[in-house]
Write a structure and sequence with these properties.
Oligomer: homodimer
Largest sheet of chain A: 6 strands, mixed
Largest interface: A-B, 43 and 43 residues
Radius of gyration of chain A: 19 Å
Order of helices and strands of chain A: HEHEHEHEHEEHEHEHHEHEEH
Strand content of chain A: 15-25%
């Protein structure tokens, strides 16, 4: 497949892939939100997904109608209890009847409890599950992936290693064959007084020893020399990543969160979506504040990853 | 004076202020850089500054010529030793013969040693000196200030308090009478597992007790609800700051650095400058990679602050 270089192209590539290999099925926990169902309906009409909607069946049906969709196009599983909605919806995925686990109206805690449940949840061994923001930005010829700006707060080196690999695997599902990974810090020099520069060196060495696969890792890098070739040149940084990073691994949640939101709000013409990766199946956790377009883009990303994960 | 709402307007307001109250004098340590002198020459022609250039007099004169400037317009102090250039230049400021301390070609360490020197440096008591990025961003009706993304790496609460007040004082010099200060985190809820949300609450309470002056402080806030009124509304945040922040106080250097560089690189049409504040005089520390325009904007900011500090 072609490398997805923008989020508009993402929709197109997801359509192509699904027309060849078939749709993926989303399982939605507490699907009692007409806005969410509208986004799913759009993805369904584009041929990306079918959906299983778990929730109070009266409310789910009312939301389907409000979204202008047709109830016969959906599989509804009646479940009135909020916490159980998460368990029922995630079981559809772990039992192989659906491919993507998605949050509806239940509280995030209940949704994540489903994801992490030891019997029916989606953890793979001890691998850390992580969040990935992904963006298209005018002037940049590639999708920029940022992790982790939303899920893991203060990852240690072990978790950062998993975050890198999770994000690389997702980028590869979008056709970025060998993603360039920048370990983002405030500086490009190793500074013993700045712990994230030391984690960056360890991640680089893990990559060189083959402990991180299908990617190129370099760091520490600051944002300018990670994403701008001219900035990297001025600083005389010799690197296969500097200036051309696809993936920015941030030291902690405050960095990734501010960076992703900065792109979303300050970079006119940009598009932003997010996905939880590193689980047995893609997990979509959008917020009510997300636009319908952002929800659709997150679903499209999940569909690509679901195809990639097999 | 009018509130400066963009960095273009900053130049205009600095011109007005200097035509009323006179120019400010910059003292440049190791002024052996034609690019830097070009920026100073432009500020000089605009009526903002006069300059004292400390360095090897042959080299300084060659740079003046290369910059297309006239050596009779400058006061040159001959000093061949790099470390002494910092001491001599900062002494010009602390002795009252200049108003702004600026870095030339000497290493940053030597420049800062001048700034922090106990006899002739610019520290005011135990007040932390801090860096402030300031930006104009298309679509925003005000200058956005970010601190500290370049100088203090991992400030504790005591230092954060100084950083807030330093940045507020600088914003006020640009006519923002009562700056709205957001303590930036990844979330808007107080979370005992996220230390920066606790520092944010302490800063809010310091403000309420009058320990932070001439500003309004709120936090924790995430970037979206700090700067976007609609995002703040969706989250039902009641706050005089949310959605309308002028100043973003970041928890640590990686956050501010990535955020400022994100604006600079991703927000088309934005402008970015930086300044060191909280010392007895404004301190300009630009990098060779900065554009001539960025250098001029930093000088203009320093001139405004120098007038404000008296």
């Amino acid at each position: 497949m072609e490398q997805v270089r923008s989020l508009s192209q993402l929709i197109e590539e997801a359509r192509k892939l699904c027309s060849e290999k078939g749709r993926k099925r989303i399982s939605v926990a507490m699907a009692e939100d007409a806005g969410l169902i509208s986004a799913i309906e759009e993805a369904r009409k584009l041929g990306l997904v079918d959906a299983t909607l778990v929730g109070n069946s009266e409310k789910v049906k009312a939301c389907i109608e409000e979204a202008g969709a047709n109830e016969t196009d959906y599989h509804i599983i009646a479940e009135d209890n909020e916490a159980k909605c998460g368990i029922v919806a995630v079981t559809e995925v772990s039992a192989g009847r659906a491919d993507i686990y998605m949050k509806g109206q239940l509280h995030t805690d209940n949704f994540l409890r489903g994801m992490l449940n030891k019997e029916v949840g989606l953890r793979v061994g001890k691998n850390a599950i992580s969040h990935c923001y992904f963006h298209s930005i005018p002037g940049y010829d590639r999708v920029i992936f940022i992790a982790d700006g939303a899920f893991n707060m203060y990852p240690d080196l072990k978790m950062k290693k998993d975050i890198v690999q999770n994000t690389v695997n997702f980028a590869r599902s979008l056709g970025v064959d060998t993603p360039k990974v920048a370990c983002l810090c405030a500086v490009e020099m190793v500074n013993p007084d700045m712990p994230c520069t030391l984690d960056a060196t360890a991640l680089v060495q893990m990559y060189k020893r083959g402990q991180l696969k299908n990617c190129i890792v370099d760091g520490p890098l600051a944002l300018d020399n990670a994403i701008d070739e001219e900035a990297a040149r001025i600083k005389h940084i010799k690197s296969d990543v500097a200036g051309r990073a696809d993936i920015l691994i941030v030291p902690q949640i405050e960095v990734g969160n501010a960076l992703a939101k900065s792109i979303s709000f300050f970079a006119k013409g940009s598009e932003t979506a997010g996905l939880i990766v590193g689980a047995a199946a893609p997990v979509v956790l959008t917020s009510r504040a997300d636009s319908p377009r952002a929800k659709l883009l997150s679903i499209a990303g999940a569909v690509m990853l679901a195809h990639h994960q097999g």
